[in-house]
Write a structure and sequence with these properties.
The structure holds two protein chains of two kinds.
Chain A: H1 2-31, H2 37-41, H3 51-61, H4 67-79, H5 94-129, H6 134-148, H7 151-165, H8 185-222, H9 225-233, H10 237-264, H11 269-274, H12 280-289, H13 293-321, H14 323-327
Helix pairs in contact in A: 1-4, 1-13, 5-6, 5-8, 5-10, 5-13, 6-8, 7-8, 8-10, 9-10, 10-13, 12-13
Chain B: E1 19-28, H1 34-38, E2 46-56, E3 61-65, H2 72-79, E4 87-92, E5 95-96, H3 101-107, E6 108-111, H4 115-118, H5 125-135, H6 147-157, H7 176-188, E7 194-198, H8 206-223, E8 226-231, H9 234-240, E9 243-248, E10 251-257, H10 258-263, H11 268-274, H12 309-312, H13 315-318, H14 322-327, E11 333-336, E12 339-341, H15 344-355
Parallel strand pairs in B: 3-8, 3-9, 6-7, 7-8
Antiparallel strand pairs in B: 1-2, 1-4, 4-5, 9-10, 10-12, 11-12
Helix pairs in contact in B: 5-6, 5-7, 6-7
Classes of the chains: A mainly alpha, B alpha/beta.
The complex binds adenosine-5'-triphosphate, iron/sulfur cluster and magnesium ion (MG).
Magnesium ion binds near residues 72, 73 and 198 of chain B.
């Protein structure tokens, strides 16, 4: 039926997007890149390479082949996880670096997104249901301020207040250097202390979006005749809200949730830089500053992959929740 | 309106009314901008419904008609207990709503204009029709039917056959007419005594309007359900209604049996509305000039006077009622048996008719020429 076709179509679309990004990546980093591809790809080392070493690089990445030949080589490498080595990290493989920096970012952005999602949706429901109440006006004001404030600015304010002035939290980093034994309670609290301010910053930054979307979507739904019908039939107010209104109003939020998770791994560059938090955001920043192209290319690919994957998830969840979409 | 014929079975006038609306007033607080508030302006509240009286008997179809914004929907919502009236009462079988609201909700059902909007897109047809039963904890029908049998019967009565075929479908999989039938099935599942239908066919294709209207009439005939149907279409009122109530700016200005009101209208406003109905022999002559009515600013005297053609053409002056038209608010007066209107000019005419002893006086001062 329609459902299967819809799912297949969405998966095909995701693959086409991925392919387009791979092609773009290839041209951006191999074909259009300025100058000698060898020194470009091995920046920082390229000029010091011996002739043999140059030949090895050319051989390894198939740089002597035609564009088409290079492309097939590139695709093969990409799909086998051979993403090159970082010049900044002295030859460590891009894949390994990525996974080293992934966990802290997942922790930071994952926790922040969860918090702002739960709190924002809860506030949005309460606000929309009691439109015009003190709570509604208060949270509207609060959210608009947060929504319009740049994250790095909020981060710097919190950093100045709670770390520099009050000294409650460390000024940055992911874990203190003197705490080494992983898995102990001491290590755990140390990591949590380092996480607190960046998580707070990001959670506050994301909050407004969830809140505003949930509130307006609930208000839309509350104006629908099926809500009035439910009331006229005698559905209790509590159930009007939970069974009819929220269930439908959550639909647009599902998309936002999935997309936010798509941005989780690349999403926190400014905050990670402000708090010197060693995650993928800071890594990206470092790679840009160091012109580490292999690393950048890998990161670019991972970020795109995450966005495409969560887009797909969002489409599929939406179709599961909303029977109308499957037919569309 | 082809294919639909009101059979108009006799309605027992001695039986107490199923529904009684007494002196209903509903106002909406005006919204006031920040700036106007600072400048000390006061919000003007809108009197959407301003003293409505209506009665509906068992098995009767009453059409509530009038221009857009005259307060039809607001009246209907007040009848459904969906908003709190500022004044007045709604009586169901002689008892005021309020304490018995939940019981009342079981017996009075609503049908809206837009069937798509009235169906929760995430519920199946079965869930939609069964919802009323579940809310009111009806696990068995009067003859011991299961929930599934009750749902199937409601769907069948609403003309969706075979009912099982619709159980697992979602509203978007049906046509507009079918959706409206689902809405009606949802109402029928609870065996209602009264259905309030707010423009139930205006959003449907012309081809299915007749079907839905005949369905409503069939329910009236077979199940003796009373129907309050809100419409701006007098042609539709003529087709389905036993009685018609004409509403203008929050008030009923004329009520009576459908033939009476639509064939021998007493109120100049009704006349003006009829002028644009092709079925009633109206032609496209300009009608109802002047500003559209504004419930935040109800005119003095007869609320229709700023737009009344009888005032504009001097008829009301000729008959010496112009001052009354402008200054004297008035109630409905029974001018013919069962036919009431609120018009100074019609009052004068009726008096003249009684004086000359003619029971069938033409409404000549009102400008009727037929
Ligand atoms: N919730 C509301 N808040 C403020 N004003 C309202 C509200 N609902 C209705 N009104 C106003 O009350 C008046 C009557 O509206 P109502 O919807 O009852 O008219 P109607 O006769 O049903 O019109 P239509 O034929 O367009 O449906 C209008 O002037 C409208 O603007
Ligand atoms: S009372 Fe006067 S203004 Fe009102 S409808 Fe009758 S003639 Fe017109
Ligand atoms: Mg209306």
């Amino acid at each position: 039926m329609g459902t299967r076709q819809y799912v297949i179509r969405k998966i095909v679309q995701a693959f086409v997007t991925l392919l387009a990004i791979l092609i773009f990546n290839f041209f951006l980093f191999r074909v259009w890149s300025p100058g000698d591809p060898v020194s470009f790809l091995t920046r920082g080392q390229g000029f010091n390479l011996s002739l043999e070493e140059r030949a090895a690089v050319i051989e390894e990445y198939g740089l002597d082949k035609s564009t088409w030949g290079q492309f097939t080589e590139y695709m093969k490498d990409t799909f086998t996880g051979k993403l090159g080595v970082s010049s900044f990290y002295q030859g460590e493989s891009v894949m390994a670096i990525f996974f080293r920096f992934l966990t802290p970012t997942l922790l930071l952005v994952g926790i922040s997104t969860m918090i702002s999602m739960v709190v924002g949706i809860w506030m949005g429901i309460r606000s929309g249901w009691r439109r015009g109440s003190k709570f509604d006006r208060g949270s509207m004001f609060f959210s608009l301020i947060l929504y319009s404030m740049p994250e790095f600015w909020l981060g710097m304010l919190l950093l100045m207040l709670f770390s520099s002035q009050l000294g409650w939290f460390p000024v940055g980093g992911r874990v203190s250097t003197n705490v080494s034994s992983m898995g102990t309670l001491e290590y755990f609290t140390d990591v949590a202390e380092h996480l607190f301010l960046p998580v707070l910053t990001l959670a506050l930054g994301y909050l407004g979006e969830f809140y505003l979307l949930m509130r307006s979507s609930l208000l839309d739904v509350l104006g629908e005749d099926y809500i009035t019908t439910a009331r006229a039939k005698g559905v209790l107010e509590r159930n009007v809200l939970n069974r009819h209104a929220v269930r439908n109003a959550l639909l647009p939020t599902v998309t936002l949730i999935a997309l936010s998770f798509g941005y989780v791994i690349g999403g926190a560059i400014t905050v990670e830089v402000v708090f010197s938090y060693q995650g993928l955001g800071l890594l990206t920043y470092t790679a840009i500053v160091a012109k580490d192209y292999w690393l950048l290319q890998g990161l670019f690919l991972f970020f795109s992959l995450a966005v495409i994957a969560f887009n797909l998830v969002s489409d599929l969840v939406y179709a599961y929740l909303d029977p109308r979409v499957r037919e569309a | 309106m082809s294919g639909v014929e009101a059979s108009r079975p006799s309605i027992d006038q001695d039986e107490p009314p199923v529904l009684e609306i007494r002196d209903l007033v509903v106002t909406f607080a005006g919204r006031i901008g920040l700036l106007s508030g600072l400048l000390g302006k006061e919000a003007t509240s809108a009197r959407a419904v301003d003293g409505v009286n209506l009665e509906l008997r068992r098995g009767e179809v009453l059409a509530l008609a009038g221009e857009s914004g005259c307060g039809k929907t607001t009246t209907a919502r007040a009848v459904m207990g969906l908003l709190r009236p500022d004044r007045g009462e709604i009586l169901f079988e002689g008892k005021p709503l309020g304490r018995h609201l939940q019981k009342y909700r079981r017996r009075v059902q609503m049908v809206f204009q837009d069937p798509t909007g009235s169906l929760n897109p995430r519920q199946t047809i079965y869930e939609i029709v069964a919802e009323g039963l579940r809310i009111h904890k009806i696990h068995r029908g009067p003859a011991g039917e299961t929930e599934e049998q009750l749902v199937a019967r409601a769907l069948t009565r609403a003309g969706l056959r075979p009912p099982e075929r619709f159980f697992m479908l979602y509203p978007h999989e049906l046509s507009g007419g079918q959706r409206q039938r689902v809405v009606i099935a949802g109402a029928l599942a609870l065996d209602p005594d009264l259905i309030v239908a707010d423009e139930p066919v205006s959003n449907l294709d012309a081809s299915v309007r007749g079907e839905i209207l005949s369905l409503l009439l069939k329910l009236r005939d077979e199940l003796r359900i009373s129907i309050l149907i809100v419409t701006h279409d007098l042609g539709l009122a003529w087709t389905v209604a036993d009685r018609v109530a004409i509403m203008y700016l929050g008030r009923i200005v004329e009520t009576g049996p459908a033939e009476e009101v639509l064939l021998r209208p007493l109120h100049p406003y009704t006349r003006a509305l009829l002028d644009v109905v092709p079925e009633a022999g109206g032609i496209d002559r300009p009608y109802l000039t002047g500003e559209p009515p504004d419930p935040t600013n109800v005119p003095s005297g007869c609320r229709f006077h700023p737009r009344c053609p009888r005032v504009a053409d001097g008829t009301s002056a000729t008959y010496g009622v112009e001052a009354l038209c402008r200054d004297e608010d008035l109630d409905l007066v029974e001018l013919r048996p069962g036919h009431v209107a609120a018009c100074h000019l019609a009052n004068v005419d009726a008096e003249a008719a009684t004086r000359t002893g003619s029971a069938t006086a033409t409404a000549e001062p009102n400008g009727q020429t037929s």
